[in-house]
Recover the amino acids of this structure.
């Protein structure tokens, strides 16, 4: 191990060695609990339907919610259960833990030069064609050791957890050969065993055609099917496959064949769709993808297709902020009846900020999403995009993943546009 990296100081001990809560805990009183129960999975949401429990308490059994209700009413029940009490002295508004369903946070190197070039007038595609962009990060990530990747991934996950993100999807895609893609996915698996947040790995080996691959796009995708996907199954490194459908990556026909084959093998599908040009969302719907992510270029036809499907529309305001381009049409997607999730796209190139709450608050302001719609997009709808139905709402049976904000009114959270961060985070019933 390289002694210059303070690795062991920052990586937590394995989750199973953390002090687990007593069998029953009683938390409260909270000024408000925003339960997000009773809200639809698809379409727009009226803010009047946002269910709040004032002066609330929560009973937690092990890692799950046992009951939510009025604090005073729950006191006798907590006593009978001999629940340990975690008193809340100050005003605290409680939400489910945020779920970031689209990130690229396992990488090495920086793309600050790309950012400067974009601000000087160069386009994302121009920079990529000139040797920057994704390929630059691939080069740096291939050179990085497992130790360096684990250290940096841990730091980013800890940052997310501190800011209220209790479940994080993490993609590969900066390896683009068998050895390096496996290195990234094994890194994600290793870090997931050491941090409190839950990591969900996605294989994005079909990010772009590697410059050093001898063959065309179809050859490369066949190579992944024959050589990489069997190892993913064997080592249980990921059950999710992603592909970037774009001019600088893979076309719709190639992507459709690849995704259908991956689905036949037993993988869940997600797609980078309609970021700069259209066509990706059509493929996502056709193959039954769990989600279509980006959608900045989506127009009426694409929105109609997504709304009529079970594919979650994942919008990524961080990419719009990083690239200086319009947001995805979130308002139109909701009004058409889509299930809309909001994710950060945290990556070194197009979305370097990584602050999910700030991005969601700004998206809400520009796209006119109300509080209920933004909170839903960060919680149970984002969980659905990952196939996780055990989190994202505060109700009995759900995971005890909570974030508490030091305020008396939930509307303060988005009003502060990301400057009001969680005061307290609970993961699986454990106070962080």
């Amino acid at each position: 191990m390289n002694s210059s990296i303070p690795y062991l100081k920052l990586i937590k001990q394995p989750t199973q060695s953390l002090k687990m809560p007593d069998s029953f805990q009683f938390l409260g009183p909270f000024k408000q609990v925003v339960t997000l129960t009773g809200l639809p999975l698809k379409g727009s949401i009226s803010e009047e339907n946002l269910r709040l429990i004032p002066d609330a308490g929560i009973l937690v059994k092990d890692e799950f919610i046992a009951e939510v209700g009025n604090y005073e009413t729950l006191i006798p029940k907590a006593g009978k259960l001999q629940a340990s009490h975690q008193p809340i002295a100050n005003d605290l508004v409680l939400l489910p833990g945020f779920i970031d369903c689209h990130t690229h946070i396992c990488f090495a190197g920086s793309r600050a030069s790309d950012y400067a070039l974009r601000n000087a007038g160069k386009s994302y595609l121009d920079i990529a064609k000139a040797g920057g962009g994704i390929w630059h990060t691939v080069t740096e990530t291939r050179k990085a050791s497992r130790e360096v990747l684990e250290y940096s991934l841990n730091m980013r996950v800890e940052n997310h957890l501190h800011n209220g993100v209790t479940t994080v999807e993490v993609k590969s895609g900066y390896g683009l050969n068998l050895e390096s893609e496996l290195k990234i996915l094994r890194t994600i698996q290793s870090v997931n065993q050491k941090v409190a947040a839950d990591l969900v790995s996605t294989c994005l080996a079909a990010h772009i055609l590697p410059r050093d691959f001898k063959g065309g796009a179809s050859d490369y995708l066949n190579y992944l099917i024959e050589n990489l996907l069997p190892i993913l199954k064997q080592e249980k490194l990921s059950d999710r496959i992603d592909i970037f459908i774009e001019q600088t990556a893979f076309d719709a026909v190639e992507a459709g064949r690849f995704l259908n084959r991956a689905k036949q093998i037993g993988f869940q599908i997600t797609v980078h769709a309609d970021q700069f040009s259209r066509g990706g969302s059509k493929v996502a719907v056709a193959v039954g993808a769990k989600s279509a992510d980006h959608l900045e270029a989506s127009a009426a036809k694409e929105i109609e297709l997504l709304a009529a499907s079970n594919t979650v529309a994942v919008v990524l305001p961080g990419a719009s902020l990083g690239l200086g381009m319009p947001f995805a049409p979130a308002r139109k997607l909701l009004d058409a009846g889509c299930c809309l999730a909001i994710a950060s796209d945290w990556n070194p190139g197009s979305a370097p900020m990584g602050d999910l709450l700030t991005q969601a608050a700004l998206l809400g302001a520009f796209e006119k999403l109300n509080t209920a719609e933004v909170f839903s997009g960060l919680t149970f709808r984002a969980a659905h995009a990952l196939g996780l139905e055990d989190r994202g709402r505060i109700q009995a049976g759900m995971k005890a993943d909570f974030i508490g904000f030091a305020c008396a009114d939930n509307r303060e959270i988005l009003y502060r546009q990301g400057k009001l961060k969680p005061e307290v985070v609970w993961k699986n019933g454990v106070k962080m």
Observations:
- The domain at 99-385 is CATH 3.20.20.140 (TIM Barrel).
